[in-house]
Amino acid sequence: AYSQISGQLKNSKLIIVGDGRDRSKVDKLVDRLDLKDQVVLLGAVYDQRELAKIFLCCDVVTLPGQVGLSVVHSFAYGKPVITKTDSYSPELEYLIDGVNGIKVSDSSLESYAEAMKKIYFDDEYRDSLSHQALETAKQLPMSRMAESIRAGILYAVNS
Asked: How far apart are alpha carbons 85 and 96 in whole angstroms?
């Protein structure tokens, strides 16, 4: 999706955090799409100070798979999230489409690209999403998250 719009997003970078079995595929895709100068592959990052630097320098977080606690982490830094509507995790309920992020109704590359462009080019919209992401984070006390984790564990044990 980023490759479709990268030419329009002047001075932008796509920062990919994480490792996994698809890392070599991502490396090859970046090479094939000739995006080596615009895509930064950081690998797994666990140090909170390093993660803070990453969050603070970005405009938006895209989570094309399950959002998990990453949505809460993003909101804590005031960063809106783009994800697809068919993703599932309990934390997805925190993301309100058009308020603190964007839920892409289909997972096509074009839909992701349009969501990224909207946030990049519309300063007022981006600022509003960012503000609301931070406000959402303030409404998510640790006790609520702990209870959600507890409920998930009990569900798994009882299954």
From this structure: 11
Residue 124, number of CB atoms within 10 A of its CB: 7
Please tell me the distance from the alpha carbon of residue 146 to that of residue 124, in angstroms, as a whole number. Answer: 34
- As separate numbers, helices (DSSP H) first and strands (DSSP E) second, the chain gives 7, 5
What DSSP character marks residue 31? H
Strands 39-43 and 14-17: parallel
Distance of alpha carbon 63 from alpha carbon 84, whole angstroms: 8
Q: Mind listing the pLDDT tens digit for each residue in 60-69?
A: 999 887 788 8
Q: Is the pTM of this model over 0.90?
A: no
Give the C-alpha distances (Å, rounded to integers) separating 110 from 55, 62, 65, 114, 115: 24, 14, 16, 6, 9
Sort strands 81-84 and 61-62 into parallel, antiparallel or unpaired.
parallel
**Sheet containing 81-84, strands listed edge to edge, beginning at the edge strand earlier in sequence:** 61-62, 81-84, 101-104
* Angle, helices 123-138/109-121, rounded to nearest 10 degrees: 100
What radius of gyration do the chain's Cα atoms show?
16
Q: Is 125 exposed, middle or buried, given 0-12, 13-18 or 19+ CB atoms closer than 10 A?
A: middle
E-assigned strands of the chain? 14-17, 39-43, 61-62, 81-84, 101-104
